[in-house]
Amino acid sequence: MVDAPPTTNRPGLLDGLDPEQRAAAAAPRGPVCVLAGAGTGKTRTITHRIAHLIRSGHVSPGQVLAVTFTARAAGEMRTRLRALGVEGAQALTFHAAARRQLRYFWPRVIGDRMWDLVEGKLRLIGQASHRVGLGTEAEFLRDLASEIEWAKASLISPDDYPAAAVRAQRDTPTSLKQMAEAYQAYENAKNAAQVLDFDDLLLQTTAILEEHGEVAREFRDRYRCFVVDEYQDVTPLQQRLLDAWLGGRDDLTVVGDANQTIYSFGGASPRPLLEFTRRFPDATVVRLERDYRSTPQVVDLANRVIGAARNRPAGSRLRLIGQRPDGAEPRFGEFDDEPTEAAAVAARIRYLLDAGVAASEIAVLYRVNAQSEAYEQALSEAGVAYLVRGGERFFDRREVRQAMVALRTAAADPPRIELVTAVRSVLARVGLTEQPPSGGAAKERWDALLSLVELAEELSATLDGADLPRYVAELEQRAAAQHPPTVEGVTLASLHAAKGLEWDAVFLVGLAEGTLPILHADGDDNAIEEERRLFYVGVTRAREHLWLSWALSRHPGGRRNRRRSRFLYGLLPENHPAARPTRAPAAKAGPKPRCRVCEGPLLDTMEIKLGRCGRCPSNLDEGLFARLKEWRTTRARELKVPPFVVFTDATLLAIAEQQPTDRGGLVSISGIGANKVERFGAEVLAVINTEHG
Fold first, then answer.
1. Cα–Cα distance between 585 and 347 in angstroms, integer?
2. Average pLDDT over residues 356-362
3. Longest Cα–Cα distance in the chain
4. Cβ distance 458 to 498 under 8 Å?
5. 497-556, pLDDT tens digit by residue?
6. From CA 621, how far away is CA 551, in angstroms rounded?
7. What is the dihedral of CA 98, 103, 105, 106, to 10 degrees?
8. What are phi and psi of 519, to 5 degrees?
9. Chain centroid, CA 262 distance in Å
10. What are phi and psi of 222, to 5 degrees?
11. 3-state DSSP call for residue 170?
12. Contact criterion met (CB below 8 Å) for 360 and 501
């Protein structure tokens, strides 16, 4: 590591940084590589570096271009810079930066207006696939799209695709010849329609800078200092664009962690990070290993997870050092089946909520999106609000759009009152009440509006003289970047979608062979190691509470032939109590549930719901069950929600067996709480009475 020499700076700017963060922030202009482990304060470090360079007179704010990989991360960087008094520095994603540059230079280089950006490419992919005689099923088209995206991110043309795919051992959705033909047909269709996809933003910007010297000179006169976050995930196309931006200069700071490389399937590679000092022999290299995010217990587990990785290059051998006070040991749980696992997770989440942990500080993370359904059902039955990351975008929600219209109108003639008071006053006109509704969709709308108030509070705390017009400008910028404020609710997300985020409590679920590592990774050492890194990313999202669980079968009563993930070996002794089915802690001790037929104990979630043990015969009224499902389908369609949000199949089965005659009977069925009875009770009882009539 090259130590940075002392520099003059405004007192106080670097005082709150640890020695390694300070060395990175105060390093002189030129190439700097920050190897930053999870939770070590990399965003804090690079934003302080930008502020230090500006305050020291090395660069002006308008000459800084910082790029990262998600709109949320870019928004967070802008917020941090603003808090440090830096206005005017650009913090954008690669694609947002390229789009802005392309829009500016397109008329001069290509003429006419810039081509539109195609938001959803599947229609054009479908046309291309049909043209070359391939299928048009949605799943197949998504696979085609992913493969074309990999090729473009890897700078591979349709003609070069077959050979490149063989070298990369790609698992292609069709033959190499047909794949290349579909790729070429897609490019032709896109050009004929005069539209660009997201990869074209980078390709076209790179081409303009490489082929037009006067454009490149103008750009390089404007931008002098570059910062790249999450550098371990850069693709060959992004690296080529970065090289075009630099134009042979070396005023570049990169930050990354090769242990968190999880996008190799999309063309990303940690090679530029690991070979940075080969390209820039005089670079300052700083290692950040002090973990300020997680408790020592979580940090220790994370170190053991990544310490078992094979063939780790030297630049990836960061060992986190926990800086927080001791916390709870990670919990492990093995369950008979997935519904039982989900119910236990929901019960534990309910326990944490009752203990004061905010819902927005809890996440359930899984390997594939299809796993979310069981947790959506379990949380619905437990009365816990949740948000599926990747679902409806915050700024597309009706109540948010209405709120922004009202705020824009008010900002045109702003009231002379404090910002937060002004925002509350405006939002009161579109549904923000003093007290929240009891639950359901109304509570979700209220939470969304409240998050806009909290954003006003954040702006007031970080920007002197913040007023309504400045607040609306911030909202517009966030909407354009899809950087929403925090909304209350437990997060459900895939491990990939969780990258860059953190929560007080994290539940890593479905940790079984075939799911993590994913089945198609088996037999490929590189793919297995990427799955291990994905697991490591999941573990390091947790600040205080960490739960790791798996199920031995998918369905209740199924064969218990699954094995826990190989990544858990060495973390969990074979004789650990989690080798046996465990139960979530109950909030209160009480009488154990008994079978309504034989009075024997009820042992699992399904038995408790049905109110009878597995040994006793069912008295299911199949006609009633069918009518209940028909009613549920109609109500779900009216409410525009999945059927299980109304009632799950298991709950309808319990109703059809027990045939309650009043609301008290409904409430006695596990999973039917007061809110559900208030909302649907009369209708359910009417269905039961109609059947009996």
1. 7
2. 90
3. 88
4. no
5. 888 889 999 999 999 888 888 877 777 778 888 899 999 999 999 999 999 999 888 777
6. 31
7. 110
8. -55, -45
9. 13
10. -80, -45
11. coil
12. no
